[in-house]
Specification:
With 324 residues, this protein is α/β, with parallel strands linked by helices. The chain contains eleven helices and eleven strands. The strands form two sheets. Strands 1, 2, 3, 4, 5, 6, 7 and 8 form an eight-stranded mixed β-sheet that branches. The radius of gyration is 21 Å and the shape is globular.
Length: 324
């Protein structure tokens, strides 16, 4: 059993995965009011503080914890930091708030997550700065790209940065590297294609017609895709069949819905996923409550982490939590 805090908590994807691995949440923080609503409907926030804006939080007021969890926003980092040190490296970014907490509370470990593009952001200056700052704070960091395909029926690559305080023994074989041991033994990942869209879709006759695209909307999508193809781009809608794997669900699905369209036969326009199907696509159980509008639900699930991936990483890191 271990304690954790949930920073940039969203709707609780980190929390669900970590609780499944035996963790106990003792502090949460999320600014978006609609995400807070969904989070509070699904997790007990009465026994701990549920802060709103991380920039208003004094790190000293956060309870001591074993693990810090955060899917942090990616923002430009100051080049001046290369000359002026920790505070200047990250000042003005939300990562700076995480670094302040880690510096003050010195948790045994942390797990950070971001989009794969973080690796190349600002010509790799961003990821280099992040790792350098965390190293200076006394942590070893082990970046890893993980595709959620297998846990859920979508191709969803994200970068995960587990970090461990230098004096904490995880029992890893450093000669081979921690991720080598994770993948060979402790990191449990289902094979690609283990689950398909058919496992999360509602029967066609139970899906309200409002999710089927109109003729006018389909015509607009075809025109847009043709224009992009003429420019040599592959942007545009994709129609998925039930025995396939979807692309990554994005927050932009709330606006366009075109990235994942479900085939409904040759004589009917495709449809959008329902919010409940989006929840399943991300690995949330059917008892997970969705108290917000469709628009907000699409945004929330598109921004979420896959709880199963978090569980697998924490399961691989668990040996440290039983050591003194």
């Amino acid at each position: 059993m271990f304690t954790f805090i949930d920073v940039f908590a969203g709707i609780g994807g980190f929390r669900r995965g970590c609780e499944l691995a035996g963790g106990i949440c003792i502090w949460s923080c999320e600014k978006d009011k609609f995400a807070r609503q969904t989070y509070a409907c699904n997790f007990d926030v009465d026994y701990h503080e549920f802060a709103e804006d991380i920039e208003d939080v004094d790190p000293k007021a956060i309870p001591d914890h074993d693990v810090l969890l955060a899917g942090f926003p990616c923002q430009p980092f100051s080049m001046a930091g290369r000359r002026e040190g920790f505070a200047h490296e990250t000042q003005g970014t939300l990562f700076f708030e995480l670094a302040k907490i880690i510096k003050e509370k010195q948790p045994k470990a942390f797990l950070l997550e971001n989009v794969r593009g973080l690796l190349s952001h600002n010509s790799r200056d961003t990821i280099t700065t992040i790792i350098r700052v965390l190293n200076k704070l006394g942590y070893k960091v082990y970046p890893k790209i993980i595709d959620a395909d297998g846990f859920v029926p979508q191709h969803r690559e994200r970068i995960y940065l587990p970090g461990v305080r230098e004096d904490v023994d995880l029992g890893w074989h450093e000669l081979n590297g921690p991720w080598a041991e994770f993948e060979e033994d402790k990191f449990i990942k289902p094979p690609k294609g283990y689950v398909q869209l058919q496992h999360i879709l509602e029967p066609h006759d139970l899906v309200p017609e409002k999710y089927t695209l109109s003729d006018a909307f389909m015509a607009a999508l075809r025109t847009h895709k043709a224009k992009q193809a003429a420019k040599g781009n592959r942007f545009g809608y994709r129609i998925c069949r039930s025995d396939e794997i979807a692309g990554a669900l994005m927050a932009s699905y709330a606006k366009s819905g075109q990235s994942i369209l479900i085939h409904q036969g040759d004589h009917k326009n495709p449809r959008k996923l329902t919010p409940r199907e989006c929840a399943r696509l991300m690995g949330y159980p059917d008892h997970f409550k969705i108290p917000v509008s469709d628009y907000q639900a699409y945004k929330q699930f598109g921004n979420s982490v896959v709880p199963g991936v978090i569980w697998a990483i924490m399961h691989a890191m668990l040996p440290w939590s039983y050591r003194e």
